[in-house]
Amino acid sequence: MTNETTINKLIEMRLTTLADTYRLQLADSSMQELSFEDRFGLLVDMEYTARKAKKRERLIKKASFDQPQANIHDINYTSGRKLNKSLIERLSTCGYIQDKHNIIITGATGSGKSYLSCALGMEACKHYFSTKYIRLPELLSELAVARGEGKFKEVIRQYQKYTLLILDEWLLIKLTETEARDLLEIIHARHHRSSTIFCSQYAPMGWYNKFPEGQIADAILDRIVHDSYLIEIQYIDKEHDRSMREIYGIKESN
């Protein structure tokens, strides 16, 4: 069998990185000094690294981040928001996901909740955890449509599968009875099975007012607050009391 035949077979099996690396090895005379085991190990390492990188790219794309440029290393800790750097750095290791815990991020509009949640979501993808970002109003709309099409349970199962779910604009407006029950199905399906990041303008004690009267609020909150890390984004003074969208938005050139 010729080397070119071997390369073509590798390409046919979609082992393109392996094929490219093998071709480079053939063109590099210094590779002849290495043992077969060493050369084979290099081939496997390149293919493995390429596949992991492609998987990471797929996870990031499927996550549908609102801010795909978010980076945990670019978080501004000096903008007057009283962010707990040690906690955020610890959460970025994704240990909370392995422990099936949640994160609650609270703060005013424009304080950077979405950016922080997306940055943590990016770290989850880098650790190869399936991740999904969605605004709560969009999720509730999706569930309502699914119910009408007879696919409600199917959608619930899909959201149960995500290792990390990021719910932005959490309880921004008051829920209807149906919306609250639908939300309970999602929260219950994920409880102690996976992790969720909740981004809200309100502290957990203020969430009760967003539910209709009854026990649904207790059932949902009991499944969230006791297993969650809390990140409160605050402001120190008037000088820093500016929206993160204003700080990082387009600046006019002089």
UniProtKB/TrEMBL annotation:
GO biological process: DNA replication
Taxonomy, superkingdom: Bacteria
Domain annotation IstB-like ATP-binding: ranges: 10-234
Record-level Gene Ontology MF annotations: ATP binding
One Pfam family, short name: IstB_IS21
Keywords carried by this UniProt record: ATP-binding, Nucleotide-binding
Protein name stated in the entry: AAA family ATPase
